[in-house]
Amino acid sequence: MFQGETAVTLDDKGRVAIPAAHRDLVAKSGNRLVVTYNPFEHGCLWIFPQEEWERVRDEVNALPSVKAVHRNLQMKLVGAAAHVEPDANGRVSLPASQRGASGIEKRAVLLGMGNKFELWSEQAHLAKIRETIGEEQITEDMLELKL
């Protein structure tokens, strides 16, 4: 399970290093990752281990494509998916098109989110972290949490 927040720097070739604490988990999952858009929030890419990605891909592709919102989700997740493998130094190359569309430049933040990573542009991450959850946004499910 991936968790934790790490400030990362992309090199001139658009590569980002997977934190050392997560490299063993990535290796155990076959050392293959899939990078795609976060379809719900701008400024963020999702990075899945291959096996988890296949589950997500199959669920998304099973949605009826006659609905525009389903096609949009399929385009952003499946259509844009790129397979990457960490090099000997634990770096993965992020597609230039995905970096550009999500605004991820030199400095970014990598979050371990359980079954996947989220790679945020530094600005988008800061804006998201500064948002607070208002009382009117609290869901019934959140009321059950023991925080």
UniProtKB/TrEMBL annotation:
<keyword id="KW-0804">Transcription</keyword>
<dbReference type="InterPro" id="IPR038619">
    <property type="entry name" value="MraZ_sf"/>
</dbReference>
<feature type="domain" description="SpoVT-AbrB">
    <location>
        <begin position="5"/>
        <end position="52"/>
    </location>
</feature>
<keyword id="KW-0805">Transcription regulation</keyword>
<dbReference type="Pfam" id="PF02381">
    <property type="entry name" value="MraZ"/>
</dbReference>
<dbReference type="GO" id="GO:0009295">
    <property type="term" value="C:nucleoid"/>
</dbReference>
<dbReference type="InterPro" id="IPR020603">
    <property type="entry name" value="MraZ_dom"/>
</dbReference>
<feature type="domain" description="SpoVT-AbrB">
    <location>
        <begin position="81"/>
        <end position="124"/>
    </location>
</feature>
<dbReference type="InterPro" id="IPR037914">
    <property type="entry name" value="SpoVT-AbrB_sf"/>
</dbReference>
<keyword id="KW-0963">Cytoplasm</keyword>
<dbReference type="GO" id="GO:0005737">
    <property type="term" value="C:cytoplasm"/>
</dbReference>
<dbReference type="InterPro" id="IPR003444">
    <property type="entry name" value="MraZ"/>
</dbReference>
<dbReference type="GO" id="GO:0003700">
    <property type="term" value="F:DNA-binding transcription factor activity"/>
</dbReference>
<keyword id="KW-0677">Repeat</keyword>
<dbReference type="GO" id="GO:2000143">
    <property type="term" value="P:negative regulation of DNA-templated transcription initiation"/>
</dbReference>
<comment type="subunit">
    <text>Forms oligomers.</text>
</comment>
<dbReference type="InterPro" id="IPR035642">
    <property type="entry name" value="MraZ_N"/>
</dbReference>
<protein>
    <recommendedName>
        <fullName>Transcriptional regulator MraZ</fullName>
    </recommendedName>
</protein>
<keyword id="KW-0238">DNA-binding</keyword>
<dbReference type="InterPro" id="IPR007159">
    <property type="entry name" value="SpoVT-AbrB_dom"/>
</dbReference>
<dbReference type="GO" id="GO:0000976">
    <property type="term" value="F:transcription cis-regulatory region binding"/>
</dbReference>
<comment type="similarity">
    <text>Belongs to the MraZ family.</text>
</comment>
<dbReference type="InterPro" id="IPR035644">
    <property type="entry name" value="MraZ_C"/>
</dbReference>
